[in-house]
Every structure is written in C-alpha cells, then in structure tokens.
Amino acid sequence: MGYLCDFCGEQRSIVYCRSDAASLCLSCDRNVHSANALSKRHSRTLACERCNSQPAFVRCIEEKISLCQNCDWTGHCSSNTSPAHKRQAVNCYSGCPSAAELSNMWSFLLELPSVGDSTCEQGMGSMSIADDRPMDSQDPQGKDNVQDTPFLVEASEDVDKSQVWMKSLTPVIDPRFQNVDQAAGSTSSAMPKVAFCFKVFLSGAKGPAVCEDDSFYGDFSMDEVDLNIENYEELFGVACNNPEELFDNDGIDGIFGTKNMSGSNCRGAYAAEGSSVGVNVMQPAISNAASADSTISCKTEPNLCFARQTHSGISFSGLTGEISTGDYQDCGASAMLNMGEPPWYHPLGPESSMPSTSRNDAVMRYKEKKKARKFEKKVRYETRKARADVRRRVKGRFVKAGDAYDYDPLSPSRSY
DNA sequence: GTCCACAGGGCTACCACAGCGCCAG
DNA sequence: GTCTGGCGCTGTGGTAGCCCTGTGG
Fold first, then answer.
1. What are φ and ψ of residue A195, in 5° steps?
2. A9, A30, A245, A280: least buried by Cβ within 10 Å?
3. How far: A406 CA to C8 C1' (Å)?
4. CA A169/CA A164 separation, integer angstroms
5. Beta carbons of A48 and A75 less than 8 angstroms apart
6. Which residues bind near strand C, taking a CB cut-off of 7 Å?
7. Signal peptide span per the entry (predicted)?
C-alpha cells in the first residue's frame, strides 16, 4: 500500500517536489506545476517508495524500488543483505514533461502500478514540456493524444531506446559504475579521480539516430533544452579540458547549479572514480543530515549530488581530470554547507585535509551568491519602481517633494 | 553546565506618492 | 449606458530598529 498524493489524497503519490515538500501523483503534479512559470521550475523526482518523505535519488533494480539517500543507505549500505544490488540514478525534472519523456527518463516507470491507472495515466498523457497545446488535445479522429501510445508501446517494446536517449541529456549510467562494490579496490589512485561522462548530441535537434520516430519524442526537441551546441560551449568552455570549469569559479554554484539539464533545475552529478572512497559512501547520521538538508535547503535550490555515490553509477565521460577535494566537496554541496559538512564528509579521512581557508572562501562565496539570489525580487509595477528609484529619502524613508533629504538616488549630494 | 554580554544576521515597519479600482452622481 | 470626480488602497526602495541566534568569557 503506497502513500497517497498530498494534493488529491486519492491517487498514490509518485513524484516528490522539493520546492513544495510534497508527494504528488502524476496527475496532480501536472496540475500543480503547470499553474505558473515559477511552479514549472520546481524540480521533481520520484518519491522514495520506502519513506515517501524524501526525494528518491537511486532506484534499486533488484528490488524495483526507488530510494532516497537515507533509505538507500539503510537498505544497501548498512546491511549485508543487499549490498550488491544494482542501482540506477533517478533523474529529476521540471516543467511538465510528457508521458513519453517521463518514460524516457525513468524507463522503470512502467513498473509502477499506479502509473497505469486511469487518472495518472491521463495526467501523464496530457503532459508536455512546452505546454504548447491543450492538455487534453485529441486528434480529429478522437484518438488519444499521440503521446500516450508511444509511451505504452514504444517503451515496452524497446526500453533501450529511452535509455539511449536519456544518455544524451543526462549523466550516463555508466556500466562501469553500476556496481561499485564489485569494482572497489580495482583502482588505486590516492586522489579521487572524477570521470565526466557527458554525452551530448551536438548535431542536434531531436535525438540519436536510433530514435528516429518523431512521434516518440513528440514535442521534445533540443531547442527546448539548454544543452544545445552554443550552450555546450558556454557551459564547458571551448576546450572543455578542465573539469573545474564545469563548476563556477567558486566551485560551488557552477553550471550544474544554474544551468538546466534536460530542462530541469536539477543539479548535475558526478562520481568519484576508483579508490576506496567510492565504496563507503556515507554514514547513517550523515545520510540523515543530507536528507534533512534536501528537505530544507533544497526548497530553494534543489540539487542532487552523487559525489562518491559511485554505486549510483553517474559519471561523465569524455572529460577526465582531477579536481581538488575542496571543489568537489563544494559541488552540489552548496546547500549542505548551510548545515555543516556535506554528507560524504569523512572527519578522519584524507579528503578532509582541504585547506580550511580555501573552503571558507568557497563557503563565503556561496553565501554571497545565495544572498544575492535570495533578495531577487519580482517587481510587479515597473513604473512604481522607477519612481521609487528616484525618490529622495530621509533615513530610508520617502520624503515629501521639496522637503530636506539625506539621500538622493540620482545624486550623492544632500539637501542640508 | 549555566549565565551574561556582545556580534552578526534576518526581518519588518516606515515614509511619499502615482496609479489603479471602485463607487456615486 | 457612458462619463467624471472623489476616495481608498497598493506597491515601490533604503534605512533604522527590533528580534533571534551563535559565540566567547
């Protein structure tokens, strides 16, 4: 028996919205997040099917269950029963993706029992990222929305298609990292190397050649995604040789924090390759902290970080290099910094030897950025703003025209 | 462990006034 | 039904002051 949607209270909840801190069925997810432009930007992912109070970040292929960090730890890392389970990263999304797009993103979605039920299926069928057509549009013959059929047929016939396509948009589930427990000890680098595997179909518009069925991908084109070729260069720089450039100069809020992947606000992920650091991912308490953080801080800045979560199998290939411990601590840890150490922090580990000054600098830069973002304000009336911008003040308060003032936005001079 | 002082950050009220909506004539 | 004038409300930015939290003695 699953948990019920926080919104309708009728359907089983499927996805988790960090911004709303709510578990929703697909239908309500669609309804709630199509309300306005801001809600469309909410980053959602599958809800943890175990606790249902946290966003899932991996899916256990063996158990066919989506798990949050905490439950993943509880179920896989802290027990001997299933440490070798293969797990797949769960991608997050924003906007109003179609059923096909969701099935692309989560091929295992077909396994979910409630996806096929009437309400949610309808909700999914009406989903569209571009939202450029009526929700319940039907063709003149009265057939179902074109998105529905491919979702049920194409995906079931050839799930690999969707997986291949997803690889073009998101960090790839690299088979080498599918089960890091098996690979543990196979490498010996002292410093954790970070393998970036970020396959982008620069050519184009729709998707890989293997997926030429336009109907399958419907309205989803690369034009709607930030990752076009221009953005690729923007994101990675011309040379793309330096992984550090993938992150901002402060190592905290880089492109993965501000640029969308697959149109989502989801922070990208990377995995530490090799060495023992990839095995013991986090301690239970730390995992809890991370989960708590994901609930609190990620409301405004959703992120996922798979640093050292090598079992989650995220990697970026094609760009390989080393980054400093500090940088990769900070990456994706922007929210974590508010609550102390990031979840993969090992107090006694060699990685903790990052110079405190650089870390503090990074924290300070992050806080400044966060502060700047926080005070972003949407002005409803530009005319009033323009007027207020030129109005004279005394101690911050507006004064009558002609009265003495101590602050003039147009001039540093004072009237007295 | 408890108490106190201090520092720092967050939040909010305050101000004038143009523009808007509403209502009566 | 349409137009006009009056009235009340809203929102805009910088600052002071209050409140809360964290830190050190």
1. -100, 120
2. A9
3. 30
4. 9
5. no
6. A 377, 379-381, 384-385, 387-389, 393, 395-398, 407, 409
7. none
Nucleotide nearest A380, from its CA to each C1': C11
User: Pick from A7, A80, A2, A85: which is nearest to A42 by CA?
Assistant: A7
Output the six-digit token pair for A384: 């009033």
Tokens of A200: 């982008």
Nucleotide nearest to A403 (CA to C1'): B16
Give the span between the Cα atoms of A227 and A168, in whole angstroms.
10
Distance C18 C1' – A377 CA (angstroms): 23
Q: Are A298 and A292 in contact (CB under 8 A)?
A: no
Region of A218 please: left (phi>0), alpha (psi -120 to 50) or beta: left
Whole-angstrom distance, CA of residue A43 vs CA of residue A28: 15
Q: Which nucleotide is nearest to A397 (CA to C1')?
A: B15
> Looking at residue A366, what is its pLDDT?
55
Contact A12, A2 (CB under 8 A): yes
CB within 7 A of strand B: which residues qualify?
Answer: A 371, 383-384, 387-388, 391, 393, 396-401
CB-count exposure of residue A173 (10 Å: 0-12, 13-18, 19+): buried
- pLDDT more than 70, % of chain A: 26
Q: How far apart are CA A22 and CA A315, in angstroms?
A: 29
Rg (CA), chain A: 23
Q: What is the pLDDT of residues A194-233, one digit of tens each?
A: 333 333 333 333 333 333 333 333 333 333 333 332 333 3
